[in-house]
Amino acid sequence: AQRVTQPEKLLSVFKGAPVELKCNYSYSGSPELFWYVQYSRQRLQLLLRHISRESIKGFTADLNKGETSFHLKKPFAQEEDSAMYYCALSEGETSGSRLTFGEGTQLTVNP
Amino acid sequence: EPEVTQTPSHQVTQMGQEVILRCVPISNHLYFYWYRQILGQKVEFLVSFYNNEISEKSEIFDDQFSVERPDGSNFTLKIRSTKLEDSAMYFCASSDLARHIQYFGAGTRLSVL
Asked: In the structure, what pLDDT confidence band is assigned to residue A41 with cuts at 50, 70 and 90?
């Protein structure tokens, strides 16, 4: 069965500092990986997905199949990045597949 | 931008009562989902629905739960006889055929007393 692990429940950095939110997964097939973000009192929204290879709001994430990781990085954190971040996995590029979520990391960016 | 809409935002019920949580998915989406998040725990998949039938369900989705698309716009989750442990945030999501991206509603907080 698939599993997603986010080892840090809380992460606190200062504005302008680099930030990395860790995500590891276990899945025997070819997964699709996502990062979702939930700002205070807002809905879960997609931040980025690995197949898009985009940079959204300065965030990037690279799928490392050897290490089964999909860490989220940003070189210079901003206060507005403070939010809950969830790593999620679905079973390949198949419509309708369930998402398996990690526990989430609460990121706080201090001024 | 179109959004998934969930009502009510907060539902309080007595143990043993039936509740129906409602969702209006994004209009051209064909896949619908329910997830739940118990306070302090991870978001968990409950069920997915496509072409008017359940396509996948988790072990959480037992006989107490059912889903329905009663008309062309609504997608509902019914809990037949609520238990204290059903207290959670319930999220509806929908996705289209092409992009495999699930869009989430704001959630319904269910409190079972």
From this structure: confident
**Which bin fits B82, alpha (ψ -120 to 50), beta or left (φ > 0)?**
beta
Number of other CB atoms surrounding residue A56 within 10 Å: 15
Which residues 18-37 of chain A have a CB within 8 Å of chain B?
32, 34, 36
Tokens of B31: 């896949």
Q: How far apart are CA A108 and CA B59, in angstroms?
A: 34
**Segment 72-101 of chain B within 8 Å of chain A by CB:** 91, 95-98, 100-101
CA gap B105, B51 in Å, rounded: 20
Residue pLDDT, tens place only, B13-29: 999 999 999 999 999 89
pLDDT tens for B30-72 read 899 999 999 989 999 999 999 899 999 999 999 999 999 988 7
Q: Is the dihedral angle over the CA atoms B12, A43, B54, A50 positive or is it negative? A: negative
Which of B10, B30, B42 to probe by mutation at the A interface, max A CB count within 10 Å?
A: B42
For residue A17, the distance in angstroms to the closest alpha carbon of chain B comes to: 28
- Give the span between the Cα atoms of A89 and A100, in whole angstroms: 5
Q: What is the pLDDT of residues A73-104, one digit of tens each?
A: 999 999 999 999 999 999 865 666 899 999 99
Q: Return the pLDDT at A52.
A: 79
Is residue B98 within 8 A of residue B70, CB to CB? The reply is no
Q: Which of A4, A52, A27 is CA-nearest to residue B99?
A: A52
